[in-house]
Amino acid sequence: MTEPSSLPIGECYLNAVKERFLEVKKNGEQTFQQLSDQELTWSPHDDSNSIAVIVKHMSGNMISRWTDFLTTDGEKLDRNRDDEFVNSISTHEELLVCWDKGWKVFLDELDMLTPDDLLRTITIRNKPMSVIEAIERQMAHYAYHVGQIVFCAKLLLGDQWQTLTIPRRK
């Protein structure tokens, strides 16, 4: 790997965000491994989203935002956002297919970006923003939802939860 300080700032930024997004993805996947199919669809109350619903929403968002990212609005006309909040996932296999589909679209598009693209203007919901702003917006969004996934799993598993980072007092 090239030392970050020897890279132009745009390449350094793209490498850093790719690494952060892959860490967020890994945290989600390590959480899914700890849960049963039934736990994936649990929610604390009717107005809360289950892990499966959060995954479905994230995938829908990734596909909408990152398909033809540089050339079309990030809110695609064929996206049915409301349907993302209806649970239709009941197994780990279905969850991972949905998860992987969204992440593939997103990561493939992120990999195609060049430092010259970073200051280009794109739109999301008719709002113009730089590619950097869009990346940062999605970083916050995806990290937020994976945090919800982890928190739900910790509630469900209690003492059986296996930490994803350095355990306390270690």
Outline the structure in words:
By secondary structure, the chain is mainly α. The longest helix has 27 residues. 54% of the residues lie in helices and 5% in strands. The model has no long low-confidence stretch (mean pLDDT 94). The chain is built from five helices and two strands, in the order ααααββα. It has a two-stranded antiparallel sheet. The radius of gyration is 17 Å and the shape is globular. Strand 1 and strand 2 form a beta hairpin.
Q: Nutshell version of this structure?
A:
The protein is mainly alpha-helical and 170 residues long. 54% of the residues lie in helices and 5% in strands.
Q: Structural class of the helix and strand makeup?
A: mainly alpha
| Helical fraction | 40-55%
Q: For the largest sheet, list the strands in their spatial order.
A: 1-2
Principal-axes shape call: globular
Note the total helix count: 5
The biggest beta sheet is recorded as:
2 strands, antiparallel
Low-confidence stretches: none
The number of distinct β-strands equals 2
Which percent range describes the beta-strand content?
under 5%
First-residue to last-residue Cα separation: 29 Å
- The ordered H/E elements are HHHHEEH
Calculate Rg over CA atoms: 17 Å
Summarize the helices and strands and which ones pair or pack:
Elements: H1 9-32, H2 37-40, H3 51-66, H4 92-112, E1 121-124, E2 127-130, H5 131-157
Antiparallel strand pairs: 1-2
Helix pairs in contact: 1-4, 1-5, 3-4, 3-5
